[in-house]
Amino acid sequence: MPWSRVLTFTDPLLCQAAILSADVEILPTTKEDFEVEITQVGADRVWLQGLHASAPTVCTVACKPERQSIGFLTESNSSPLQHCGLEVLPGDIIVNRSDVIHRRSGHDLDYGSISLPTDELDNAVEAIIGCEFVEKSDRRIVHPHPQLMARLLKLHRAIGQLAHDTPDILQMPEVLRALENELIHVMVRCLADGVGVEPTTGDCRHDAILAQFEEFLEANPDRPLYLTEICAAIGVAERTLRASCEEHLGMGPIRFLTLRRMHLAHGSLLRADPLKSTVTRIVTDHGFWELGRFSVAYRALFGESPSETLRRPADRIAIHLNRPSSLVVTEPGYA
């Protein structure tokens, strides 16, 4: 069944749970107020998504293998975007894959994505270009023909605007089917005719190092970690790990570790019952043992003390359905 929704989030954990076609971890990098508006439309085959994010973030993304998706900047004045250490420019298309990747952006990011089931993409490619798609498996960014990209952006904007203003129109089967078919056609042409940017050997090496780094952090969530220990565990030199993290994350490994754990602790404090939990227990569960230093860093990032976060009422986490759709709504992002 078709569906659409427009959502506004002020909590990164709720926001990341709503993202379509991928498992995402969102880490705001400043203490500015986090606010993201997401517009989502689902047809028979295509899922379309557009978002505006106000604050700088670094994201870890694992795309779901059953769907093929592409992403792109939707506005020419959008914040710069780095994808796996590569700069994404207006007019570029990101080819998303099922491996874990990292993205980082500044203020006021305008980003869109389109996805459809992988087998549907294969069928569409064969129908549109007359042969099987010779997958250029290592392409991360594609430079499509400007006219094709302009058509893709125009369609993406038009469908998003309908979801905002007149979602009833998308309930008309002939309208949605026509838009979906045109979107698939232009998407396939952009991918088939575009010039791809392939990673270098160094890029692939850095990808592998970041994957090992993430795995080690996941395996050791509740104890202090030190750079020499991390490097020994994943078998790389400190200089190499630093270079990989700076390229993909825009920061060194210890700063990323601290930022990630700060946000995890923040989420736990927000959701904890102050009558049953303590700041000390929650903080130490996330690997912080120097509580005074933690409190100073926490206040600098979130603008309040850990105890103030713990005591705030449970309804403080905001998710708003700005424009409830008249369509039948499913919840693919929350599955």
UniProtKB/TrEMBL annotation:
This protein's UniProt keywords: DNA-binding, Transcription, Transcription regulation
Entries under InterPro entries matching the protein: AraC_XylS_family_regulators, HTH_AraC
PROSITE patterns: HTH_ARAC_FAMILY_2 (PS01124)
Transmembrane segments: none
Domain of life of the native organism: Bacteria
Segments forming domain HTH araC/xylS-type: 211-312
Name under which the protein is recorded: HTH araC/xylS-type domain-containing protein
Protein species of origin: Bradyrhizobium iriomotense
